[in-house]
Protein backbone atom coordinates (compact mmCIF):
# COMPACT_ATOMS: atom_id res chain seq x y z
CA UNK A 1 0.00 0.00 0.00
CA UNK A 2 2.94 2.39 -0.34
CA UNK A 3 2.05 5.63 -2.07
CA UNK A 4 4.63 4.92 -4.79
CA UNK A 5 2.33 2.12 -6.03
CA UNK A 6 -0.24 4.64 -7.28
CA UNK A 7 -0.30 7.14 -10.12
CA UNK A 8 -3.52 9.03 -9.29
CA UNK A 9 -5.48 9.85 -6.15
CA UNK A 10 -9.26 10.14 -6.55
CA UNK A 11 -11.28 11.88 -3.86
CA UNK A 12 -14.95 12.22 -3.18
CA UNK A 13 -15.79 15.77 -2.12
CA UNK A 14 -18.48 16.22 0.54
CA UNK A 15 -17.57 14.44 3.74
CA UNK A 16 -14.12 13.57 2.37
CA UNK A 17 -12.28 16.82 1.62
CA UNK A 18 -14.87 19.23 2.99
CA UNK A 19 -17.40 19.06 5.79
CA UNK A 20 -20.62 17.27 4.90
CA UNK A 21 -23.28 19.93 5.42
CA UNK A 22 -25.82 17.67 7.11
CA UNK A 23 -27.75 20.64 8.45
CA UNK A 24 -28.39 21.78 4.89
CA UNK A 25 -29.61 18.32 3.90
CA UNK A 26 -31.89 18.24 6.91
CA UNK A 27 -33.31 21.65 6.04
CA UNK A 28 -34.07 20.34 2.55
CA UNK A 29 -35.85 17.40 4.15
CA UNK A 30 -37.97 19.72 6.28
CA UNK A 31 -38.92 21.68 3.18
CA UNK A 32 -40.29 18.48 1.67
CA UNK A 33 -42.31 17.76 4.81
CA UNK A 34 -43.77 21.24 4.59
CA UNK A 35 -44.58 20.94 0.90
CA UNK A 36 -46.29 17.60 1.40
CA UNK A 37 -48.00 18.73 4.60
CA UNK A 38 -46.94 15.73 6.66
CA UNK A 39 -45.50 15.53 10.15
CA UNK A 40 -41.72 15.83 10.07
CA UNK A 41 -39.19 13.56 11.74
CA UNK A 42 -37.04 14.86 14.60
CA UNK A 43 -33.44 15.93 14.11
CA UNK A 44 -32.36 12.92 16.17
CA UNK A 45 -34.19 10.61 13.76
CA UNK A 46 -32.62 12.29 10.74
CA UNK A 47 -29.18 11.93 12.33
CA UNK A 48 -29.75 8.25 13.04
CA UNK A 49 -30.80 7.38 9.52
CA UNK A 50 -28.06 9.54 8.03
CA UNK A 51 -25.41 7.63 10.00
CA UNK A 52 -26.84 4.37 8.64
CA UNK A 53 -26.77 5.74 5.08
CA UNK A 54 -30.52 5.30 4.86
CA UNK A 55 -31.34 8.87 3.88
CA UNK A 56 -35.07 8.31 3.33
CA UNK A 57 -35.65 5.37 5.67
CA UNK A 58 -37.51 7.59 8.12
CA UNK A 59 -40.37 8.11 5.63
CA UNK A 60 -43.32 5.73 5.53
CA UNK A 61 -43.06 3.20 2.70
CA UNK A 62 -46.26 4.46 1.10
CA UNK A 63 -44.93 8.02 0.86
CA UNK A 64 -41.23 7.40 0.23
CA UNK A 65 -41.28 7.46 -3.55
CA UNK A 66 -43.11 10.80 -3.65
CA UNK A 67 -40.91 12.16 -0.86
CA UNK A 68 -37.70 11.37 -2.78
CA UNK A 69 -39.10 12.84 -5.98
CA UNK A 70 -40.01 16.12 -4.31
CA UNK A 71 -36.70 16.19 -2.42
CA UNK A 72 -34.66 16.14 -5.61
CA UNK A 73 -37.02 18.56 -7.33
CA UNK A 74 -36.38 21.10 -4.58
CA UNK A 75 -32.67 20.38 -4.17
CA UNK A 76 -30.33 23.03 -5.55
CA UNK A 77 -26.54 22.83 -5.24
CA UNK A 78 -26.42 26.61 -5.66
CA UNK A 79 -27.87 26.91 -2.16
CA UNK A 80 -25.27 24.60 -0.63
CA UNK A 81 -23.19 26.25 2.13
CA UNK A 82 -19.71 27.59 1.46
CA UNK A 83 -17.09 24.83 1.70
CA UNK A 84 -15.40 24.16 5.03
CA UNK A 85 -12.17 22.27 4.43
CA UNK A 86 -11.71 19.33 6.79
CA UNK A 87 -8.66 19.26 9.04
CA UNK A 88 -5.71 17.59 7.37
CA UNK A 89 -7.06 17.87 3.83
CA UNK A 90 -4.51 20.38 2.58
CA UNK A 91 -1.61 18.60 4.28
CA UNK A 92 -2.59 15.31 2.65
CA UNK A 93 -3.05 16.86 -0.79
CA UNK A 94 0.34 18.55 -0.40
CA UNK A 95 1.96 15.24 0.61
CA UNK A 96 0.51 13.52 -2.44
CA UNK A 97 1.83 16.27 -4.70
CA UNK A 98 5.28 15.96 -3.14
CA UNK A 99 5.16 12.25 -3.94
CA UNK A 100 4.16 12.93 -7.58
CA UNK A 101 0.63 11.55 -7.17
CA UNK A 102 -1.84 14.03 -8.72
CA UNK A 103 -5.20 14.50 -6.98
CA UNK A 104 -8.59 14.52 -8.70
CA UNK A 105 -12.07 15.20 -7.32
CA UNK A 106 -14.75 12.69 -8.30
CA UNK A 107 -18.11 13.99 -7.13
CA UNK A 108 -21.76 13.08 -7.60
CA UNK A 109 -22.66 16.76 -7.75
CA UNK A 110 -24.29 17.56 -11.07
CA UNK A 111 -22.75 21.03 -11.25
CA UNK A 112 -20.31 22.05 -13.95
CA UNK A 113 -16.68 21.52 -12.87
CA UNK A 114 -16.01 25.21 -13.41
CA UNK A 115 -18.72 26.13 -10.95
CA UNK A 116 -17.39 23.71 -8.36
CA UNK A 117 -13.87 25.08 -8.81
CA UNK A 118 -15.12 28.64 -8.33
CA UNK A 119 -16.67 27.66 -4.99
CA UNK A 120 -13.29 26.44 -3.73
CA UNK A 121 -11.31 29.44 -4.86
CA UNK A 122 -9.36 30.66 -1.85
CA UNK A 123 -9.70 27.50 0.25
CA UNK A 124 -6.32 26.13 -0.80
CA UNK A 125 -7.80 23.00 -2.39
CA UNK A 126 -7.42 24.53 -5.83
CA UNK A 127 -3.63 24.50 -5.41
CA UNK A 128 -3.55 20.71 -5.49
CA UNK A 129 -6.50 19.43 -7.53
CA UNK A 130 -5.67 18.96 -11.20
CA UNK A 131 -9.16 17.96 -12.36
CA UNK A 132 -12.78 17.84 -11.19
CA UNK A 133 -15.07 15.14 -12.55
CA UNK A 134 -18.71 15.83 -11.72
CA UNK A 135 -21.82 13.92 -12.68
CA UNK A 136 -23.19 14.66 -16.14
CA UNK A 137 -26.86 15.15 -16.94
CA UNK A 138 -26.88 11.71 -18.55
CA UNK A 139 -25.75 10.04 -15.33
CA UNK A 140 -29.01 9.86 -13.39
CA UNK A 141 -27.86 7.70 -10.48
CA UNK A 142 -26.06 10.02 -8.06
CA UNK A 143 -24.70 7.13 -6.02
CA UNK A 144 -22.98 5.39 -8.97
CA UNK A 145 -19.55 6.91 -9.54
CA UNK A 146 -18.33 4.29 -11.98
CA UNK A 147 -18.79 6.59 -15.01
CA UNK A 148 -16.76 9.37 -13.36
CA UNK A 149 -13.99 7.01 -12.29
CA UNK A 150 -13.78 5.44 -15.74
CA UNK A 151 -13.75 8.85 -17.42
CA UNK A 152 -10.90 10.07 -15.21
CA UNK A 153 -8.83 6.93 -15.85
CA UNK A 154 -9.25 7.35 -19.60
CA UNK A 155 -8.40 11.05 -19.44
CA UNK A 156 -5.15 10.49 -17.57
CA UNK A 157 -4.35 7.17 -19.26
CA UNK A 158 -4.05 5.17 -16.06
CA UNK A 159 -5.47 1.82 -15.08
CA UNK A 160 -7.95 1.79 -12.16
CA UNK A 161 -5.59 -0.54 -10.27
CA UNK A 162 -3.00 2.25 -10.40
CA UNK A 163 -5.35 4.61 -8.50
CA UNK A 164 -6.42 5.10 -4.91
CA UNK A 165 -9.91 6.30 -4.11
CA UNK A 166 -11.08 7.84 -0.83
CA UNK A 167 -14.75 8.39 -0.01
CA UNK A 168 -17.12 8.58 2.95
CA UNK A 169 -20.27 6.72 1.85
CA UNK A 170 -20.83 3.08 0.84
CA UNK A 171 -21.43 3.79 -2.89
CA UNK A 172 -18.00 5.44 -3.10
CA UNK A 173 -16.31 2.19 -2.11
CA UNK A 174 -18.70 0.03 -4.13
CA UNK A 175 -18.11 2.10 -7.27
CA UNK A 176 -14.34 2.03 -6.80
CA UNK A 177 -14.42 -1.74 -6.25
CA UNK A 178 -16.55 -2.29 -9.35
CA UNK A 179 -14.02 -0.34 -11.42
CA UNK A 180 -11.07 -2.29 -10.06
CA UNK A 181 -9.46 0.63 -8.21
CA UNK A 182 -6.22 -0.46 -6.55
CA UNK A 183 -6.74 1.04 -3.09
CA UNK A 184 -10.16 1.80 -1.67
CA UNK A 185 -10.20 3.99 1.45
CA UNK A 186 -13.39 4.47 3.49
CA UNK A 187 -13.50 7.56 5.70
CA UNK A 188 -15.55 8.21 8.82
CA UNK A 189 -15.38 11.98 8.38
CA UNK A 190 -18.74 12.12 6.60
CA UNK A 191 -20.69 10.79 9.57
CA UNK A 192 -21.49 7.28 8.32
CA UNK A 193 -21.04 4.48 10.86
CA UNK A 194 -17.90 2.38 10.58
CA UNK A 195 -19.80 -0.89 10.45
CA UNK A 196 -21.88 0.41 7.53
CA UNK A 197 -18.75 1.33 5.56
CA UNK A 198 -16.89 -1.88 6.39
CA UNK A 199 -19.65 -3.99 4.82
CA UNK A 200 -18.55 -2.64 1.42
CA UNK A 201 -15.07 -4.14 1.87
CA UNK A 202 -12.66 -1.18 1.73
CA UNK A 203 -8.93 -1.85 1.90
CA UNK A 204 -8.63 0.74 4.66
CA UNK A 205 -11.10 2.44 6.99
CA UNK A 206 -9.72 5.68 8.43
CA UNK A 207 -11.03 8.56 10.50
CA UNK A 208 -10.23 11.12 7.79
CA UNK A 209 -7.91 11.97 4.91
CA UNK A 210 -5.49 13.32 7.50
CA UNK A 211 -4.43 9.73 8.27
CA UNK A 212 -3.57 8.79 4.69
CA UNK A 213 0.07 9.98 4.66
CA UNK A 214 0.95 8.20 7.89
CA UNK A 215 -0.79 4.97 6.86
CA UNK A 216 0.70 4.77 3.39
CA UNK A 217 4.14 5.81 4.58
CA UNK A 218 4.19 2.99 7.14
CA UNK A 219 2.89 0.15 4.96
CATH topology of the largest domain: Rossmann fold
Overall geometry comes to globular
Q: How many β strands by DSSP?
A: 6
How many domains is the backbone divided into?
Answer: 2
Mean pLDDT: 92
Low-confidence stretches: none
Which series of helices and strands comes N to C?
Answer: EHHHHEHEHEHEHEH
Strand share of the residues? 5-15%
Q: What is the H level of CATH, i.e. the homologous superfamily of the largest domain? A: HAD superfamily/HAD-like
Q: How is this structure best summarized?
A:
With 219 residues, the chain is α/β, with parallel strands linked by helices.
SSE order and pairing:
Elements: E1 8-11, H1 22-36, H2 43-51, H3 61-74, H4 89-98, E2 103-106, H5 113-119, E3 129-133, H6 146-155, E4 163-167, H7 170-179, E5 183-187, H8 194-198, E6 204-206, H9 212-218
Parallel strand pairs: 1-2, 1-4, 2-3, 4-5, 5-6
Helix pairs in contact: 1-3
What would your notes on this structure say?
The protein has helices spanning 22-36, 43-51, 61-74, 89-98, 113-119, 146-155, 170-179, 194-198, 212-218; strands spanning 8-11, 103-106, 129-133, 163-167, 183-187, 204-206. It is α/β, with parallel strands linked by helices. Helix 1 packs across helix 3 (61-74). The protein folds into two domains: 3-19 and 84-218, HAD superfamily/HAD-like (Rossmann fold, 3-Layer(aba) Sandwich), CATH 3.40.50; 22-79. Strands 3-2-1-4-5-6 form a six-stranded parallel sheet, with helices on both faces. 40% of the residues lie in helices and 12% in strands. The chain is built from nine helices and six strands. The radius of gyration is 17 Å and the shape is globular. Strand 4, helix 7 and strand 5 form a beta-alpha-beta unit.
Amino acid sequence: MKITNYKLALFDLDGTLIKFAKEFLFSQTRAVYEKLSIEEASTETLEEYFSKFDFFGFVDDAKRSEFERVYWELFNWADYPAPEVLAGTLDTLSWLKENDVPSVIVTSRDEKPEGIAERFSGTGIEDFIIHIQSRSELEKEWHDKRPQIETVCRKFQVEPRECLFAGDVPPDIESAKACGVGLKIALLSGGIRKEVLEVTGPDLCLESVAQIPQKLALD
